[in-house]
Design a protein that fits this description.
Helix content: 25-40%
Distance between the termini: 30 Å
Mean pLDDT: 91
Oligomer: single chain
Number of helices: 15
CATH class of the largest domain: Alpha Beta
Structural class: alpha/beta
CATH architecture of the largest domain: Alpha-Beta Barrel
Length: about 475
Amino acid sequence: MQNSRRAALTLALFLSACTTPRVSAPPSSDQLVITSVRVIDTEAANASVPQDVLIADGRIAAVAPAGQLKIPRGTRSLDGSGQFALPGLIDVHAHIGEGGAMPNSEAGRERALRQFLRYGVTTVFVPGATGAGDADWLTLTERCRAGRFACPGLYGSGSLITARGSHPVSTIFNMPDDVPAAMTEARGVTVLDPGTDVSALIAAKKAAGVTAIKIVIEDGPPPWHPKPRMGDAQIRAIVTAAHALSMPVFAHISASDHVRIALDADVDGIMHAPTDVLPASLVRRMADRGMWYVPTFSLYDGILTWARKQREADPDALSGVNAEVIDSLAAAPFLAAAAEDEAGALGYLANASENLRRVAKAGVPLALGSDVNNPFVYPGYSAHEELSSMVRAGLTPAQALRSATIGSAKFLRASDRLGRIAPGFEADLLLLARNPLETIENSRTLVSVVADGEVISDVVSSGRGL
């Protein structure tokens, strides 16, 4: 698992760079070879001839045509004949929760972390919220590294930063404007008051071990609009302080005007598609700036399901999501409490599709994020839903898969170790029965998941791939 990542590479990594037809590695009890598997390159949009993939100490040590590796004694073997190896999926907007209407709990968060892996999501970026705030982050990551429970690779922002009286404190949490800081921090949210020493705040977050900063640029969202939002000077101060510490800043937005504010402040990426259509001028600025775009179709699809007062019916979800979570979303009081109507939710999805087509055509960098732990947005499963939504919106399967692998790795500033099946990269990969480059739903035909070199035993697979 990612909890045991090692910085040092084995001798096999050096040997894999040689031009000799056979690649060797020293004997090791912590090695695995996947034989005769077709490796998918999401950048080139192709699948190789059958390859052997040698894994040592949680890293990919060598990749060579089938039968050309000299396999060390004692190496475990996984037969990949007839299968396709895809880099592990990366969800860059994934709160740690199960996606139901139940109270957050430590047990639920542990189940959620395991569920990511069962669906083939081997790395996540956690943008704040309960269980992943500033005070929790080091403890969470240390428990993962110690193997206390199964974890994907974790990156995160710690407590997200918002204005007093704004989202999510006065909206989702329904807390008063004068709520004490301790209560919002317990929910993974930092309220920024005027006069706060922004540099000190960002330095404290860096010391807490977080890898990025998430801010809320909001005067809503619907249906709570209007709400206060952070001032432009505050936003620029946060970005300046974070960039001085080599930390990217990502912004929660819900409208095109928020994107303009983020661009003016040099924010690195936006979370969510705007609920309106992005003007061409903003799309060009996003492309020129290299601003990351994370559309979160799964969030809007969940809103639609809730607005229609439907219960979960997808067999892919029913087979892998905790039954109590599914039942909690079918309760009559919950279904009656939908904040959106069907027409509004359909409008969000239509605009999200149009915006994705525009930004993709312009060359805006894309990463996959689903907004796990909103209702009907389940850990792991929702990444596959996101891939399908991106393709329905107009991307090719290769483009969607690239956003979930290479794109998301770049978003995390980890493209030197994540997102590819190549020597030196972390051993995170999926074995699929069918080729997802042909039909995106084939990403769900999981046979095995390997995370940090370890085989996940209880994967959730779908027979619905084509």
